[in-house]
């Protein structure tokens, strides 16, 4: 009976969940560097150290891999539910403040640079109608608005309803996307400091005093 040697080490078996996580992590790195159209399933397999068929067994197809990467990585954490259990000012159910949540989100994104870079790459690539996430990104503003509207935010009494805040939300998301793009470039800026300069423009005094 043969035994493992230094030249033929024993292969480590990983659980399906561990292997799946490795595949998604490799895809995040590759897509953030080259874009979706610049990678192949074989590239992911090479980075993980398995066969192409081994990767496909977990993801089904390249298009499905992209959806998994976006929905299970960038688009799942840093949400309002996470903010509500953070214990930060403005995060309680009876005092839920939109500006405070956006500050939280910017800070959260500042600690996941690679995923922000992935998202930025996808934003550009999904202009192509044939891209597998084209429709999802085209509806991004509307879907975020629907999500935010499901929470009971504390807003200034000058607004008769949260619907009147929608233009501010749109501008805030546009500003955040632009600031993140600048943050990814060199020389780097401080994401949180840059947002701190924009916040008073989006949520000005005295209107938002006590509601930030």
Summarize the structure in words:
The chain has about 210 residues and is mostly helical. It folds into two domains: about 60 residues, Homeodomain-like (Arc Repressor Mutant, subunit A, Orthogonal Bundle); about 140 residues, no CATH class. The chain is built from eleven helices and two strands, in the order αααααββαααααα. The chain has a two-stranded antiparallel sheet. The protein is elongated. The relative contact order is 0.10.
Task: Draw up the topology in text.
Elements: H1 16-34, H2 41-48, H3 52-59, H4 62-74, H5 80-84, E1 91-92, E2 95-96, H6 98-109, H7 113-125, H8 134-138, H9 140-148, H10 166-184, H11 191-202
Helix pairs in contact: 1-2, 1-4, 1-7, 2-3, 6-11, 7-10, 10-11
Largest sheet: 2 strands, antiparallel
Return residue spans where pLDDT drops below 50 for at least 5 consecutive residues.
Answer: none
Q: Give the helix level as a range of percent.
A: 55-70%
Strand coverage percent = under 5%
Q: Quick gist of this model?
A:
By secondary structure, the chain is an all-alpha fold. 58% of the residues lie in helices and 2% in strands.
Features:
212 residues, mainly alpha, Arc Repressor Mutant, subunit A, 2 domains, two-stranded antiparallel ribbon, 2 strands
């Amino acid at each position: 009976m043969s035994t493992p040697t230094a030249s033929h080490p024993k292969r480590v078996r990983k659980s399906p969940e561990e292997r799946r996580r490795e595949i998604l992590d490799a895809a995040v790195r590759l897509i953030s560097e080259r874009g979706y159209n610049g990678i192949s399933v074989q590239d992911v397999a090479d980075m993980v150290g398995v066969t192409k068929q081994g990767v496909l067994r977990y993801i089904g197809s390249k298009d499905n891999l992209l959806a998994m990467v976006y929905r299970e990585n960038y688009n799942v954490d840093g949400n309002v539910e996470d903010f509500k259990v953070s214990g930060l000012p403005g995060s309680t159910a009876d005092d839920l403040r939109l500006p405070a949540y956006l500050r939280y989100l910017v800070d959260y994104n500042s600690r996941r640079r690679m995923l922000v870079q992935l998202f930025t790459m996808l934003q550009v690539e999904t202009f192509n109608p044939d891209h597998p996430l084209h429709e999802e990104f085209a509806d991004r503003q509307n879907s975020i608005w629907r999500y935010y509207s499901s929470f009971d935010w504390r807003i200034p009494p000058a607004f008769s309803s949260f619907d009147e805040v929608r233009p501010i939300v749109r501008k805030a998301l546009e500003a955040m996307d632009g600031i993140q793009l600048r943050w990814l470039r060199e020389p780097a800026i401080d994401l949180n400091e840059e947002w701190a300069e924009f916040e008073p423009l989006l949520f000005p005094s005295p209107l938002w005093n006590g509601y930030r």
